[in-house]
């Protein structure tokens, strides 16, 4: 519906409203009371710049809570917590007069090399979508709009402003779209940010299919589409495609081009009206929600600390080395520059000026009565390696346990460029090996935004704790987990591969000559590793706690087999002596399908918190999409058998059940290119074909031989009819088809 002010706006005013006023705000029309609206980064904190605007995190911004990055939040598998973080971000936005916060990033981690993986939740679209939706709900609960980004198929930084992601529709629909779709449908973000890249040759900012047909037409998006900063190549084509707001300002260039295009008839004014209406209606809604809600600040640092621990993934813990006893025991040696100079966020547009910063060394010292000593062990720039290492090794001789803080220095991963390898710096690995020769009790705590090769780390360390880039309270959260004040609750939202060459996009990454081919298609993350039976370092969904859980009495119930839906139930029992959390994961597979499908796919999950000895019956629902794949005709569920696996990771399946769905068969129409086999498999085609063969007499007899049928299976009807001596091929086939497609 058109916004009521549309009729009163001049063409020039309308064109001005779809292009920013400056770096972070939209244009006002004072005479009609249309305010300027502030949009700012996001997503891990509010980057409200006082002066010196930029989209690269270079200039300073007002202090704001630096929450854990999406790499860490993704590992929480905890929508409720994400909603709380979102709400806190909304409150801080309100307090800094920000109307739209630019986040969340729900792009899929296609390769561990993407420089921006720390800003994205997962390699799995269901997990990314559930977390994205919760984050948006939280932010918007206080009247601040979210901006779901970067739509779509933006999975690398290399050549990000020009590259064409060459990706087939099934892959888009099953892997790269669902997190956007789910977030739009569950939480209606105020805005969706289109990405820089092209999709199959067309810029996202000018892609009508993407921005209008799919986003609005199919998913029912009601907000406005904003460009990524500088993503608009042609402002007129952008409006025509369904882009509603160009950011940042392009001066008078954008508005003037739009005015000219309307005047000379190359852009319909009604399309501009749609864009203006979308922007104004959304801004009205935000202002009304702001007037109706109060933004009450809580203890956001404490929330950031809780969230960082919830995203911490305990990868190994031999002989229960963790948690450390805080009261008794010998000296604890803390090693690693990261312990006193935390790396807790990534570089680029999400860079926050934190309100405070906890370092792990101080937090550890404050958490224990045991003696704590520190050695930097290495310098970020690699200098003075031998001296730093030998001092640390010397100190390790006196210590009962060594806690080594390792990770990726700032320069190794960032927005704007991709990584070229997944290795930890060699000086850190040499230090670790030397420490191991001196002391057998080593805990490694990691700070990195995307996965790293952990081969040498797991060899040397008895316990490995992945803290990701955990925000401003990451240091104290690490201490909380190390001493067991809280559980490490995280589960991997991305597989940790053994080596880079095992990763699904390896040969296609990062493309060249302007194109990147998504050749691995739907086989992304565990869908690839599990289908191709590759060994991995740590599987998707993996993470240890300080207690263990048992799964019993798993059932999968199908109420009505003619409907694609099932209910999964399982009893989860905390078998240990400590309270803990577990994430129950449900994977669905379709062993016999009309198309290739991954071995299994995450279709539901639930996080449970249980006291020692406590049990809970966990119930998870599977809807139609849990069984569907994208076919030429849209989402399709085939009748037949499905496996439903209930587990604690994609490789730790505790129960497998098989169900049969008796949903209606949807057969594609036959045509002259349909094969002998396809005619036989078609409910009406088979009878028509058999009659045709009978009518052929002896010539048709050979088609009845089972061996011959195998050989002829792939022959199109066109050839079969021609081989049978017919000259009017089209006429003959059309005759056969009247008895087939009509009845279908
Ligand atoms: C990034 C966006 C960000 C925008 C504004 C762009 O370069 O891709 O994620 O929101 O800048 O800073």
TrEMBL record:
SMART domains: Fn3_like (SM01217). The keyword DNA-binding does not apply. InterPro entries: Cellulose_deg_GH3 (IPR050288), Fn3-like (IPR026891), GH (IPR017853), Glyco_hydro_3_C (IPR002772), Glyco_hydro_3_C_sf (IPR036881), Glyco_hydro_3_N (IPR001764), Glyco_hydro_3_N_sf (IPR036962), Ig-like_fold (IPR013783). Residues 582-650 form the Fibronectin type III-like domain. GO terms for biological process: carbohydrate metabolic process. GO terms for molecular function: beta-glucosidase activity. It comes from the Bacteria. Keywords: Hydrolase. The keyword Protein transport does not apply. Catalyzes the hydrolysis of a non-reducing terminal alpha-L-arabinopyranosidic linkage in ginsenoside Rb2 (alpha-L-arabinopyranosyl-(1->6)-alpha-D-glucopyranosyl) to release alpha-D-glucopyranosyl (Rd). It is not able to hydrolyze alpha-L-arabinofuranosyl-(1->6)-alpha-D-glucopyranosyl (Rc). Belongs to the glycosyl hydrolase 3 family. This is Exo-alpha-(1->6)-L-arabinopyranosidase. It comes from Kineosporia babensis.
């Amino acid at each position: 519906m058109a916004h009521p002010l549309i009729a009163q706006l001049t063409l020039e005013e309308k064109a001005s409203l779809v292009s920013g006023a400056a770096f972070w705000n939209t244009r006002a029309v004072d005479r009609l009371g249309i305010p300027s609206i502030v949009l700012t980064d996001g997503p891990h904190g509010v980057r409200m710049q006082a002066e010196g605007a930029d989209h690269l995190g270079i200039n300073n911004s007002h202090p704001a809570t630096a929450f854990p990055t999406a790499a860490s939040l993704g590992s929480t598998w905890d929508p409720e917590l994400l909603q709380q973080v979102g709400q806190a971000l909304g409150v801080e936005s309100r307090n800094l007069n920000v109307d739209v916060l630019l986040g969340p990033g729900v792009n899929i981690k296609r390769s561990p090399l993407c420089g921006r993986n720390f800003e994205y939740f997962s390699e799995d679209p269901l997990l990314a979508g559930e977390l994205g939706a919760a984050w948006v709900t939280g932010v918007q609960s206080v009247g601040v709009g979210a901006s779901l980004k970067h739509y779509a198929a933006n999975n690398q930084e290399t050549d990000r402003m020009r590259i064409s992601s060459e990706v087939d529709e099934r892959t888009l629909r099953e892997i790269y779209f669902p997190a956007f779709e789910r977030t739009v449908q569950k939480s209606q973000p105020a805005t969706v940010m289109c990405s820089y890249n092209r999709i199959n040759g067309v810029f996202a900012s000018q892609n009508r299919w993407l921005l209008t047909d799919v986003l609005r037409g199919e998913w029912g998006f009601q907000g406005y589409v904003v460009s990524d900063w500088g993503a608009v190549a042609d402002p007129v084509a952008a409006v025509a495609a369904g882009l509603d707001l160009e950011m940042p300002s392009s001066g008078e260039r954008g508005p003037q081009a739009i005015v000219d295009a309307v005047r000379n008839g190359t852009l319909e004014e009604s399309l501009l009206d749609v864009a203006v209406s979308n922007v104004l209606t959304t801004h009205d809604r935000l202002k009304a929600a702001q007037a109706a809600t109060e933004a009450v600040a809580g203890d956001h640092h404490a929330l950031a600390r809780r969230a960082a621990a919830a995203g911490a993934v305990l990868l190994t813990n031999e002989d229960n080395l963790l948690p450390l006893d805080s009261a008794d025991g010998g000296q604890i040696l803390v090693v690693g520059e990261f312990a006193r100079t935390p790396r807790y966020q990534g570089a680029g547009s999400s860079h926050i000026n934190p309100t405070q910063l906890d370092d792990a060394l101080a937090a550890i010292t404050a958490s224990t009565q045991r003696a704590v000593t520190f050695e930097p062990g290495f310098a970020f720039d690699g200098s003075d390696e031998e001296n730093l290492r030998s001092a640390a090794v010397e100190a390790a001789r006196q210590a009962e346990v060594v806690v080594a803080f390792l990770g990726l220095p700032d320069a190794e991963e960032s927005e704007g460029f991709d990584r070229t390898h997944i290795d930890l710096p060699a000086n850190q690995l040499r230090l670790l090996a030397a420490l191991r020769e001196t002391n057998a009790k080593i805990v490694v705590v990691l700070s990195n935004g995307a996965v790293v090769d952990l081969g040498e780390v797991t060899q040397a360390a008895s316990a490995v704790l992945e803290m990701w880039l955990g925000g401003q309270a990451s240091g104290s959260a690490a201490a909380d987990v190390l001493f067991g004040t809280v559980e490490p609750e995280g589960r991997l939202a991305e597989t940790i591969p053994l080596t880079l060459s095992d990763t699904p996009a390896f040969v296609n990454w990062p493309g060249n000559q302007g194109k990147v081919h998504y050749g691995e298609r739907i086989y992304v993350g565990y869908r690839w590793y599990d289908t191709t039976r590759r060994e991995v370092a740590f599987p998707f969904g993996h993470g240890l706690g300080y207690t263990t859980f048992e799964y019993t009495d798993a059932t999968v119930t199908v109420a009505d087999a003619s409907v694609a839906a099932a209910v999964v139930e399982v009893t989860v029992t905390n078998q240990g002596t400590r309270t803990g959390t577990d994430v129950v994961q449900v994977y669905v597979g379709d062993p016999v399908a009309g198309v290739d499908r991954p071995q299994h796919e995450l279709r539901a999950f639930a996080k449970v918190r249980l006291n020692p000895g406590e049990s809970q019956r966990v119930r998870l629902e599977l809807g139609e999409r849990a069984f569907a794949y994208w076919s030429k005709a849209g989402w399709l569920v085939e009748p037949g058998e499905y496996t439903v696996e209930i587990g604690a990771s994609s490789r730790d399946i505790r129960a497998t059940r098989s169900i049969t769905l008796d949903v209606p068969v949807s057969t594609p129409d036959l045509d002259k290119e349909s094969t002998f086999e396809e005619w036989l498999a078609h409910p009406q085609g088979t009878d028509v074909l058999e009659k045709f063969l009978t009518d052929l007499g002896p010539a048709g007899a050979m088609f009845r031989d089972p061996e011959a049928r195998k050989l002829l299976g792939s022959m199109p009807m066109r050839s079969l009819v021609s081989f049978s001596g017919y000259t009017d091929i089209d006429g003959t086939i059309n005759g056969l088809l009247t008895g087939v497609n009509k009845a279908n």
